[in-house]
UniProtKB/TrEMBL annotation:
Domain of life: Bacteria
DNA-binding keyword on record: no
Sequence ranges assigned to domain GGDEF in this UniProt record: 206-348
The protein's name: Signal transduction family protein (GGDEF domain protein)
Pfam families the record matches: EAL, GGDEF
Occurrences of domain EAL (ranges): 357-611
Domain Response regulatory residue range list: 11-159
Cited InterPro entries: Biofilm_reg_signaling (IPR052155), CheY-like_superfamily (IPR011006), EAL_dom (IPR001633), EAL_sf (IPR035919), GGDEF_dom (IPR000160), Nucleotide_cyclase (IPR029787), Rev_trsase/Diguanyl_cyclase (IPR043128), Sig_transdc_resp-reg_receiver (IPR001789)
SUPFAM superfamilies recorded: CheY-like, EAL domain-like, Nucleotide cyclase
Length: 629
């Protein structure tokens, strides 16, 4: 089924075997402008002024002698995109079809055609007509001999009815086949066009490609800036996607051309028919990635959104719609895991990974309710005093079926499906409650560091959530340190800055995690109220390899000192790294050389033994260290 074509028509077909009748209809329906006033006056009296449509002279009249000729004329008009709105059909037209049979054939070809059956009193009874043609509101009977004004009124009223019906049908088809927000084809029309594309590709041995597009971090933008901005973003994205298609391609009406559709939410698809090489799909994907990554100005906001794109090819990746869609979706998720603004071609090996991912996601949805999460805490040491100065809360998940699931396997899934907000709230509440308990026990803990994801940080209720947890656990805010990633600093700059200042006003400490791996500038760091930089493990690992990473660490330490910021080196695993960091005057360290992340009970034992950095370094030489890395 194709989308309805909403064409207005004042075309009238007369089917009668009498030439004189043809001439009469032409005289009546193609009168002079003076006689139009008479019919318009009548219309006004009957229907009101707003119903006046057009002068009768604008009717376009065609006349034929037999029913078969009439059917051929209707077919021709329809194929030209200029269908008839009304037909006057004679009841008796020997030797061919009679009027009733003619109307039956006309409606098979054009079901919305309005018809006036011109008949003598003795031709047919209404019961006979209804028995053959059925109940319908598209048929009126005009008894011979007929009045000129009556014919004019029927012509005006029925063409107007046809136009109204077509307008309504056009709107219904617009709702049925097109997305109301963007105007793009919706899932229904997409499936229809993809079906046609695959049938043609199969028949002519062509290749075809399907691109599955998902916008990175759309939910975060929608939640942070509001649904109005989110809608504007989707509309702007739709226009940009259309620009990426070739000028000869169509959006919806030609299944032979490339087509972009919105499946729902922030998911779009592009059909590429007659792909000669897979590289062509890659070229289109690159074009889309480049186009969508350009900054958008929406209201008072500058928004940058990037796509993750998955590509499946017909017939190698699937010969039916369901398989092609599934595999393009799988490839899209692999792109998302590689980072923003990426595309991937589907590979068979992805199926096993996709099944694993789906299994993890299904269990993850139940993990909070089942109490499967736990926090472990990794101590942080002061390199000057050698004492424990803080700890970082780290999430752990043990599932009854999957066992211990590494964070690297489930955190990204939680971020993509939005569960990270609820999980992050649980982490913060649990860490704050436990820290309050330890402080009441007299443990010398200066702070607890809690990681906050971008999605959680930009959630509309984040600040209220932090305040509520601190009040609920009665933890003094100075003991809480929130760790954010460096990438957050370059996104939604005004909103991020406002949230950071609000946290600082609450006396909460702020640390930049994995510093040196992002793209924040010195000027940006000066604008925000941070307390600590954490040197990423990749630089620490490179200390023993060469001078490049040593130089980077030296520069970061000098910068932190100049800005009066505390500095922690992450992932310290060798004494050589400790020696280098101590010489360069890095204040604090954290890593498996001193302690692995500890359970709540292990932390209490750890402090009871009054562990310090020096003691831990001594213990690393033992056969069985108390808290082995």
């Amino acid at each position: 089924m194709k989308p309805h074509e909403n064409n207005l028509s004042h075309r009238i077909l007369v089917i009668d075997d009498n030439t004189a009748i043809h001439q009469d209809f032409c005289k009546i329906l193609m009168k002079s402008p003076d006689s139009d006033n008479e019919i318009q006056d009548m219309e006004t009296a009957l229907f009101g002024a707003e119903t006046q449509t057009m002068a009768s002279g604008t009717f376009e009249i065609d006349c034929v002698f037999q029913g078969r000729e009439g059917l051929a004329q209707v077919q021709k008009a329809k194929s030209e995109g200029r269908p008839y709105s009304l037909a006057f059909v004679d009841g008796r037209m020997p030797p061919g079809w009679d009027g009733i049979e003619t109307i039956s054939h006309l409606w098979q070809e054009s079901p919305d055609l309005q018809v006036v059956l011109c008949t003598a009193y003795a031709d047919y009874s209404w019961q006979e007509i209804r028995r053959v043609l059925g109940e319908t509101d598209s048929l009126l009977i005009l008894k011979k001999p007929f009045d000129n004004v009556e014919v004019l009124q029927l012509a005006h009223a029925l063409t107007r009815k046809w136009e109204l019906n077509n307008e309504i049908q056009g709107r219904l088809n617009q709702l049925a086949f097109y997305d109301s927000l963007t105007g793009l084809p919706n899932r229904t029309l997409f499936i229809e066009n993809l079906t046609t594309t695959l049938d043609k590709a199969h028949r002519y041995k062509h290749k075809a490609a399907l691109l599955y597009i998902d916008l990175d971090n759309f939910k975060r933008i929608n939640d942070t800036l509001g649904h109005s901005i989110g809608d504007d973003l989707l509309k702007a994205t739709s226009k940009r996607l259309l620009k990426c298609l070739r000028t000869s391609d169509t959006v919806s009406r030609s299944p032979a051309g490339e087509m972009v559709a919105r499946l729902g939410g922030d998911e779009f698809t592009v059909i590429l028919p007659e792909v000669t090489r897979a590289e062509h799909a890659g070229v289109v994907a690159l074009r889309i990635a480049k186009q969508l990554a350009e900054p958008l100005h929406l209201g008072n906001h500058q928004v940058i959104v990037t796509p993750s794109i998955g590509i499946s090819l017909f017939p190698q990746d699937g010969e039916d719609i369901e398989t092609l869609l599934k595999n393009a979706d799988i490839a899209m998720y692999f792109s998302k895991r590689m980072g923003p603004n990426m595309f991937s071609f589907y590979e068979q090996s992805m199926n096993a990974d996709a099944l694993k991912r789906m299994t993890i996601e299904n269990h993850l949805r139940q993990a909070l309710g089942r109490g499967e999460f736990a926090l472990h805490y990794q101590p942080q040491f002061d390199l000057v005093t050698g004492e424990v100065c803080g700890a970082e809360a780290l999430l752990r998940w043990h599932n009854w079926e999957l066992g211990n699931v590494p964070p690297i396997e489930f955190i990204s899934i939680a971020e993509e499906n939005g569960m990270i907000v609820a999980i992050g709230e649980w982490v913060m509440r649990t860490a704050c409650r436990q820290t309050r308990t330890w402080l009441d026990q007299g443990l010398p803990l200066q702070r607890i560091a809690v990681n906050v994801s971008v999605n959680q940080f930009t959630h509309t209720d984040f600040l209220n959530m932090v305040k509520s947890i601190l009040e609920e656990t009665t933890l003094d805010p100075q003991y809480l340190e929130i760790e954010i990633t460096e990438s957050l600093l370059v996104k939604n700059v005004p909103e991020t800055t406002n949230i950071l200042h609000a946290l600082k006003k609450m006396n909460i400490r702020i640390a930049i995690d994995d510093f040196g791996t992002g793209y924040s500038s010195m000027s940006r760091l000066k604008e925000i109220p941070i307390d600590c930089l954490k040197i990423d493990k990749t630089f620490v690992d490179g200390i023993a390899i060469g001078k490049r990473d040593q130089s980077i660490i030296t520069a970061i330490i000098a910068m932190a000192e100049g800005m009066n910021l505390r500095l922690i080196a992450e992932g310290v695993e060798t004494t050589g790294q400790v020696d280098f960091l101590r010489v360069k005057q890095c204040q604090e360290v954290q890593g498996y050389l001193f302690s692995k992340p500890l359970s709540t009970q292990q932390v209490e034992v750890f402090f009871q033994k009054a562990f310090s950095l020096e003691k831990n370094l001594e213990n690393t030489g033992d056969d069985v260290p108390p808290f082995p890395a």
